[in-house]
Amino acid sequence: MRQQIQSAYLAGKGWVDPLLKELRGVIGVHDRLILSDQPPQNPFCTQNIWLNPRTLHIESISDAAKQLKAIQRNWCLYSYHLHRRAKLILEKLPPVKCKPLSFPSPLPTSPLGSFTLLDENTLLASADCSSPFPNGEARFVEDKEGPPNRAYLKLYEALTLAGSKPQSGEFCIDVGGSPGGWAWVIHQCGAEVLSID
Known about the structure:
The chain is an alpha+beta fold. The protein folds into 2 domains: about 1-135, VC0802-like, CATH 3.30.2130; about 150-195, no CATH class. About 25% of the residues lie in helices and about 25% in strands. The chain contains 5 helices and 10 strands, in the order βαββββαβαββαβαβ. The strands form 3 sheets. Strands 2-3-1-4 form a 4-stranded antiparallel β-sheet, covered by helices on one side. Helix 2 (about 60-70) crosses helix 3 and helix 4 (about 150-160) packs across helix 5. It starts with 6 loop residues before the first strand and ends with a strand.
C-alpha cells in the first residue's frame, strides 16, 4: 500500500470528513492526514497538500534525519502518533525558524517539506507542499489592541496568499461585517470600506 501513495492531504481541524468526500483514491487516514493513490488533486477542504510524498524505510532516528537532509534542508513535522520518536528526528534536523509574519508581508520563499512517521521504521516525506507555512497554518503577529475580534487574522492570511491587498483610493464592501475585523484590516490597508451586516 505505502508504495502507492501519490499524494497526501492535511485537513484543517474539523475538516477531515468533508475532505474525505472530496478526494479520490483514499488509501489511508492518519488523524488529519489523508493518503491517496491518485496524483495531487485540488480539494477545497485542505490545509496543505503533500505533492510528491515518498515512503522511506528508516533504521534509526539518525538515519531518518540523514535521509531527510539528503532530500532538502527545511522540514516540518506532522505528528499524529509516535510523538517522542518523531520529535527526536525533528531535533536532529536543521532548525526552521517560522516566526509569525507581520502583515503585510510576502509569502515565505524557502522550500518547506513535511514529514510524518507512519510506523516506527517508516517515514512519509514530501519535499514539495502546496503551503509555504508549517502544516499549512499561517501565523501572524497579533494586534491585541486595535481590531474588534480575531477574524482579521483570516483576512491577513487570505490577502497574503493572494499576494495583494486593498490600496489607498480603492473602495471595498464588507458584507456580513459585524463585528468588524475584516473592515478593520481593509481600513488599515488604506482603502475605504462600507461594512454591511
